[in-house]
Amino acid sequence: MSDETAPARWGYKFSRFEVMPSADTFSMAPIKNLLNKYISPSDVVIDPFAKDSKVGTITNDMNPTTTAQYHMNAPDFLDELLKQNVVADVVLFDPPYSPRQITECYATAGLRATMVDTQNARLYREVKKRLWQLLKPRGYAICFGWNSSGMGFKKAWQPLEIMLVHHFGAHNDTIVTVQRKMQRTLDESEG
Fold first, then answer.
1. Sequence-ordered alpha helix ranges (H) in the chain
2. Residue 177: C-alpha distances to residues 64, 85, 98, 158 (Å)
3. Residue-wise pLDDT tens digits, 28-83
4. Pairing mode of beta strands 2-4, 13-18
5. What is the pLDDT of residues 134-145, one digit of tens each?
6. Which end of the chain has the smaller Cβ count within 10 Å, N or C?
7. Between the CA of residue 63 and those of 60, 67, 176, what are the distances in Å?
8. Handedness of CA 187, 147, 35, 64 (dihedral sign)
């Protein structure tokens, strides 16, 4: 079921869908369709939290049993790509959404999460800063979570879409934001 509306006054096109939840975020039909809208077959797509997803062309997941190309924590993975001078057309940001989920990700990788590791605001900030550096100007950032913050609402980003994916019952909705990078440099005072 879908409930799509015209672009909102703040610049985003808004859409809402009802879909059963899935641990594989990108397998849900509305999300799969949105990704297909913004990702071309020739694009370089970075996914630092890929699990077994093949949407990204450069993939990472801490869990060594996944099919991701790299098995590192996300900031270290992105630092490696920065050293290699990788430039992305699209970046995907689908991290663990809560401290509990972060702890579970560490456990599946055979690691024990510390209190610092489970501070998702810190993790998000570190990963987003690196994704900003890797993304080409006018490239797309597609973010997933329980909020609509995306990469940030600062002047560095052009808002494009927000998709609300309702999962029925007591499940939290998945909120997807799509933004286009508009500046070549990031003013650190903007976050």
1. 29-38, 74-83, 99-108, 120-134
2. 29, 26, 18, 11
3. 999 999 999 999 999 999 999 999 999 999 999 999 999 999 999 999 999 999 99
4. antiparallel
5. 999 999 999 999
6. N
7. 9, 9, 24
8. positive
pLDDT at position 188 is 44
Higher pLDDT, 99 or 94: 94
Full set of structural domains in the chain with CATH: 2-184 (3.40.50.150)
Task: Find residue 141's DSSP bridge partners.
Answer: 91, 179
3-state SS assignment for residue 187: coil
The count of residues in the chain is: 191
3-state secondary structure of 167: coil
Which residues, other chains included, contact 58 with Cβ-Cβ below 8 Å and sequence gap of 6+?
Answer: 44, 45, 46, 47, 69, 70, 81, 86, 88
Q: Report, as an integer, the average pLDDT of 116-142.
A: 91
Residue entry with tokens 């976050």:
191
pLDDT for 190 equals: 46
Give mean pLDDT, residues 175-191: 73
Angle between helical axes of 120-134 and 99-108 (0-180°, round to 10): 70
